[in-house]
Amino acid sequence: MATTPPDDPITEPPEPSPRPLPWPARWLLQAFAVLCLVMGAIGVIVPGLPTTVFILMAAWAAARSSPRLYRWLWHHRLFGPLLRNWAQGGKVSRRAKWSAALVMSLSAVVLLLTVSRPWIVAVAIGSMACVLAWLWRRPEPS
Hints:
By secondary structure, the protein is mainly alpha-helical. The chain has helices spanning 23-45, 52-65, 67-75, 79-87, 94-114, 118-136.
C-alpha cells in the first residue's frame, strides 16, 4: 500500500453516498468493476488500450458495490494517484498526457498503413484528435 504525500489533501477516498442497492445490482456493478480493472491492467501492458478510463470506471462501480475494492484501488501504488488526481478536479498528469499522445500517434500510423477504407481512418484519427484536445485541456496536478 502506497502512502500519500503529506501535502495531498485527499488521503482517504471520498465516501460514496448513494442509498444501498439491491444485491443483483451490487453484484453486476462489482462484476463490471472487476472487468474494468482487468481491462485497465491489460492496458498498462498493451499499447492502444486505455488504462485511465477503465480504472475510473472500475472505481465508480466499486464505490457503489464494494467499499473494500474501492479502498484498495484508492491506495494502490499505480492506480491510486490517478484516482486521487481525478478526485481533485479531474486532473491528469503530464506523463499520462504524453503517453496517451504517443500511443494514439502510433495507432494512427498503424491505421494509415493497414486500413484500406479512408473514412474509417478519418473517423478514428478524428476521434483520437478530439480526445487528445480534451485531455490536454485538463488541469495537471501540482
